[in-house]
Please model this.
Amino acid sequence: MTKKEMEELISIKQEINAIEMSLCAPKSTYTFAFYKDYRTGFPIPKIETGYDDGSICKDQLIKRLIATKKKLQRKIIEAEKFIEIQTDSELRTILRSYYINGLSQEEIGKLLGYDRSTITKKLKRFWRMKI
Model:
């Protein structure tokens, strides 16, 4: 796996959070629909107003959420396989904590007894060696 593929895990998790937040937000809004009525033979602009509960949008969001979660599961399995082949146990902990568990570099540093900058250097050095 590449660094870009591992960082994609983080972005997929953020996308899932955004979709879940939009599902939880109230969607009932006052909406307008503009169309042209041709019953008279000429295009006459018409306006319809009303409340939209967003039920159509919610169905699409739920389908998108399910598809994104499946994609995340596949990526996590690939990432776990990639992490397991690394020889350094400390590096495996850093990679798993940062990319899969979503901990910040500062939190990983506290967990392992290092400074944040040390974790950053270890990650940069690892990815530089992989290229």
